[in-house]
């Protein structure tokens, strides 16, 4: 594939770049009125994600409208539980809900390792359309949730502040926990391989709920599975973003991922020392984009100066919030482009 702009791939591989590449977690959907216009034609998020032509359209919107250096496929991490036999609903303004959850061995026996061709071909179809429509303008990022985060939703049945049901399962039934985590891992490996086969140029694994485990639990129930995924997929650069997992940054850096995503609680200079040779991605506080233009300029420049040009992909420290003004997002992107080309 010949790209017009492959900055993000080169930065991920640790190669020299003329300027810092930039994209934003949750750039597809959430903030753009153009996204809502497409979504409002359908019953909601799930139908949109399952309609490849429209999923492709909203994947490309931020490339056209915001000027980001990568597209990320429009889908959700929760398609994996669904493909394993636990369907989800997306409740307006409240988020995901699972009518059935995993509580016992017999619930587990009703699940299967995802058959991607059968259950997730809408995602691989959307990837093929995006690749064709982008025609090399920028790379396409595929993604999945990390096994612990997916496990948390499958046990809890939805979002939660504490995920205490999911954490209780780790303490009360480690055996069932490991079995389910392994099934999720096998499903995720199949799924990410299929995304690469369909054309994804790089991959990101989101461990959104890393921050609620203890270091001991993270080492036992999260790292081994993230490691398996990293080792199973060697074809494209990979990023691991484990939110609030400051306590295991060194362990994450030992895995086979090229890039480590940082949330905004981490200091760029200290993080560099802790992860050695890896590329870093992040980490502006999404709330910084509520500030005025001057303060966005200042905070973005400070971030770029702290990370330095090499081995760095500019991004936020977590996903965009729905009420962030798209003009301020564009300003952030422009500051990255201008300041880092000096
Ligand atoms: C934890 C998690 C989820 N989904 C995701 C994560 C990991 C990243 C993170 O920590 O934010 C990942 C995700 N979800 C979505 C993407 C698409 C690509 C992108 O723009 O980055 C990605 C990468 C679309 C989506 N996923 C969802 C929407 C909103 C649905 C709508 O349009 O109503 C979108 C565009 C719904 C969703 N999906 C999820 C929740 C909690 C919610 C409800 C709240 C919210 O809006 O985020 C689970």
TrEMBL record:
CDD domains: URO-D. GO terms for biological process: protoporphyrinogen IX biosynthetic process. One of its GO terms (molecular function) is uroporphyrinogen decarboxylase activity. It is an enzyme of class 4 (lyase). GO terms for cellular component: cytosol. Its EC number is 4.1.1.37. Keywords: Cytoplasm, Decarboxylase, Lyase, Porphyrin biosynthesis. Coiled coil: none annotated. It comes from the Bacteria. The keyword Phosphoprotein does not apply. The record marks 76 as: Transition state stabilizer. Homodimer. This is Uroporphyrinogen decarboxylase. It comes from Marivirga atlantica. The gene is hemE.
């Amino acid at each position: 594939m010949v790209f017009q702009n492959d900055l993000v791939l080169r930065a991920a591989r640790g190669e020299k770049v003329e300027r810092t590449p930039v994209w934003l977690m949750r750039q597809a959907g959430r903030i753009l009125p153009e996204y809502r216009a497409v979504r409002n034609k359908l019953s909601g998020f799930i139908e949109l994600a399952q309609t490849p032509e429209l999923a492709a359209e909203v994947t490309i919107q931020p490339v056209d409208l915001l000027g980001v250096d990568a597209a990320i496929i429009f889908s959700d991490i929760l398609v994996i539980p669904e493909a394993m036999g636990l369907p989800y609903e997306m409740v307006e303004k409240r988020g995901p809900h699972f009518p059935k959850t995993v509580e016992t061995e017999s619930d587990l026996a009703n699940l299967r390792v995802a058959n991607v061709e059968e259950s997730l071909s809408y995602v691989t179809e959307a990837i093929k359309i995006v690749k064709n429509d982008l025609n090399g303008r920028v790379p396409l990022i595929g993604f999945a949730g990390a096994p612990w985060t997916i496990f948390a939703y499958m046990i809890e049945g939805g979002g939660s502040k504490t995920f205490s049901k999911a954490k209780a399962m780790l303490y009360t039934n480690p055996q069932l926990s490991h079995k389910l985590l392994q099934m999720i891992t096998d499903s995720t490996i199949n799924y990410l391989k299929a995304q690469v086969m369909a054309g994804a140029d790089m991959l990101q694994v989101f461990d959104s709920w890393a921050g609620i485990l203890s270091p001991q639990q993270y080492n036992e129930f999260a790292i081994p599975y993230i490691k398996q995924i990293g080792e199973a997929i060697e074809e494209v650069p990979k990023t691991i973003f484990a939110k609030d997992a400051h306590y295991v940054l060194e362990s994450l850096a030992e895995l086979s991922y090229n890039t480590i995503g940082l949330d905004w609680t981490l200091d760029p200079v200290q993080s560099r020392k802790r992860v050695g040779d890896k590329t870093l991605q992040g980490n502006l506080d999404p709330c910084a984009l509520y500030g005025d233009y001057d303060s966005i300029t200042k905070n973005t420049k400070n971030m770029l100066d702290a990370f330095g040009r090499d081995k760095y992909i500019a991004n936020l420290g977590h996903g965009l919030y729905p009420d962030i003004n798209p003009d301020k997002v564009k300003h952030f992107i422009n500051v990255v482009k201008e300041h880092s080309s000096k």
